[in-house]
Design a protein that fits this description.
- This protein has about 400 residues and is α/β, with parallel strands linked by helices.
- It folds into 2 domains: about 240 residues, Metallo-beta-lactamase, Chain A (4-Layer Sandwich); about 150 residues, Flavodoxin domain (Rossmann fold), CATH 3.40.50.
- The chain is about 35% helix and about 25% strand.
- The protein contains 13 helices and 22 strands.
- The strands form 5 sheets. It has a 7-stranded mixed β-sheet with strand order 1-2-7-8-9-10-11. Strands 17, 18, 19, 20, 21 and 22 form a 6-stranded mixed β-sheet that branches.
- Strand 10, helix 4 and strand 11 form a beta-alpha-beta unit.
- The radius of gyration is 24 Å and the shape is elongated.
- Bound molecules: MU-OXO-diiron.
- MU-OXO-diiron binds next to helix 2.
Length: about 400
């Protein structure tokens, strides 16, 4: 009862799901909900590991009480002081007046900024290299700045190899009774949302994630307990490899993402024509999205996935169509790099958007290779565009095949 799951003999999941929140961070659609993960370690000392969003606090407090089964709560360990994980801190402190909070110095600064008034003598500051024993379980603390706020720490239980990874290895999507990644078809049902979560929430900070992955590679990790989504206890290499790719801005798929901005369907039609050509020329992994009707977070996730991106855009007010501009700005903010770009431009008069997009990729982004073949449409696609369309499709297909060959050689 009470939606409590055991992770190990001593560790319980006491977090919960939120299906009522429409927009995570008031920005990202979460049609499948989200989980706020919190764990309770029952050792000689009792340790509540992170907390949850205020929205599910009532249920959360009940779970803690049930697992404690009459024992007091000694510690609350907070890895990340963002409100989706620290919303219940004050209430937990009120109910368990003897507990001390363990976290980083900067996390406590943020906690005060949020407005939690916890007496200093209840705060235990930890930093990289510190350890704390709770009985048979001893935690080693690892600083993980910018994954995804600056105060973040992770901890590693040296007794049983559990890594508490903060937002790292998290995902959008409520867990709804599942607990472990090996209980689901992760690749089919979870990977897209895990990618969308990582790329939009942490994507900007790839080098910091690389640093953490290097630290993690020296640890005998048996399981990973993140703050959102499923716990990993099998096949850890799978998710570590995904994180390595995402954080180094390496594409997962050698294929083509086409994102179009269309007002009356003509640029959409050109995009479909290009997709048709590319597939017929041999590259089958092609995705096409309308920038106006697709959440930008999904476009960002797909941009991190694919090696080649085509921007097909109508000219608007002598500039880039606003939803497309928003997508490009987001791509830049999240530091995406190392992609090959194709451009299709459209304009009924004064068509200049292709130059603006090329300039953006050349000057505002890193390691973006804009193909010299470009298609320029004057209102709607016509027979006069045939050669340019062919040339762009050829150029994209050749580039994808060259990349595949190169990667195959590199093993
Ligand atoms: Fe899930 Fe960065 O908070």
């Amino acid at each position: 009862m009470y939606n409590i799951r055991k992770i190990t003999d001593d560790l319980y999941f006491v977090g919960g799901n939120d299906h009522r929140l429409e927009l995570f961070e008031n920005m990202f659609p979460i049609p499948d909900g989200v989980s706020y993960n919190s764990y309770l370690l029952m050792d000689e000392k009792t340790v509540l590991i992170d907390s949850v969003d205020w929205a599910i606090t009532r249920d959360y407090l009940r779970k803690i009480e049930i697992v404690l089964d009459g024992r007091d709560l000694d510690y609350m360990l907070i890895h990340h002081m963002e409100p989706d994980h620290c919303g219940a801190i004050e209430e937990v402190c009120l109910r368990y007046p003897k507990l001390s909070i363990i976290s980083s110095e900067q996390a406590f600064d943020i906690m005060r900024q949020i407005g939690y008034d916890i007496p200093e003598d209840r705060l235990i500051k930890v930093k990289e290299g510190d350890t704390m024993s709770f009985g048979k379980h001893t935690f080693a603390f690892v600083e993980a700045p910018m994954v995804h706020w600056p105060e973040v720490i992770m901890s590693f239980d040296t007794y049983d190899g559990t890594l508490f990874s903060s937002d790292g290895f998290g995902s959008f999507g409520a867990i709804d009774g599942k607990m472990f990644a090996d209980e689901v078809d992760f690749e089919r049902d979870w990977l897209d949302e895990a990618r969308r979560y990582y790329t939009n929430i942490v994507g900007k900070y790839g080098p910091f994630v690389q640093d953490v992955l290097k630290k993690a590679s020296g640890l005998p990790i048996q399981r990973i307990c993140p703050l959102h989504g499923l716990v990993w206890r099998e096949n850890l290499g799978y998710i570590l490899e995904k994180y390595d790719k995402w954080s180094s801005y390496e594409p997962e798929a050698h294929g083509v993402l086409i994102v179009y901005a269309t007002m009356y369907g003509n640029t959409e039609n050109a995009s479909q024509e290009l997709a048709n050509d590319i597939v017929q020329k041999g590259v089958k992994d092609v995705k096409v999205y309308d920038v106006s009707s697709t959440p930008v977070s999904q476009l960002i996730a797909e941009s991190f996935k694919y090696s080649h991106i085509v921007i097909a855009c109508v000219t608007y007010n002598l500039g880039i169509y606003p939803p497309m501009k928003n997508f490009l700005m987001d791509m830049q903010a999240l530091n995406l790099q190392n992609r090959t770009i194709g451009i299709v431009e459209n304009g009924t008069w004064a068509c200049n958007v292709g130059d603006l997009i090329e300039e953006f990729f050349d000057e505002e982004m890193k390691l973006m290779d804009v193909l010299s073949d470009r298609v320029t449409i004057n209102t709607s696609l016509n027979i006069g565009n045939r050669n340019d369309m062919d040339a762009l499709a050829d150029s994209i297909v050749e580039s994808v095949n060259n990349l595949k060959e190169l990667k195959a050689k590199q093993g």
